[in-house]
Amino acid sequence: MQYVAAYALLTLGGKANPSEADVKGLLAEVGVTGSDAEIKSLVESLKGKSLQEVITEGLKKVGTLSLGGGSSKASAPVAAQAQAVKKAEEKPVEKAPEPEEDVDMGGLFD
Length: 110
Description:
Arc Repressor Mutant, subunit A; mainly alpha; 58% helix; single chain; ribosomal protein; elongated
């Protein structure tokens, strides 16, 4: 992932087609030693493609993934609990009446 991030940063920084040396150099600047084979594979697979196109294609694939999720039976108690919490929040909070204080005015009205 760090190789893809470095490639993306270089592209966003103005390099249309970053080379292996560019990616290695950026990774070295932040103290990461990269695998030459993985960097070479990344650069070759992205050669001739714009970063925006690659991201757009990736987002289409991510949208089709099943990320799990609960069944309707499992979500019913959670929904009921959320409704109970919402109802508890909606109740107005009544304040206790404050007792009147006898303030000494220093003999002002004597």
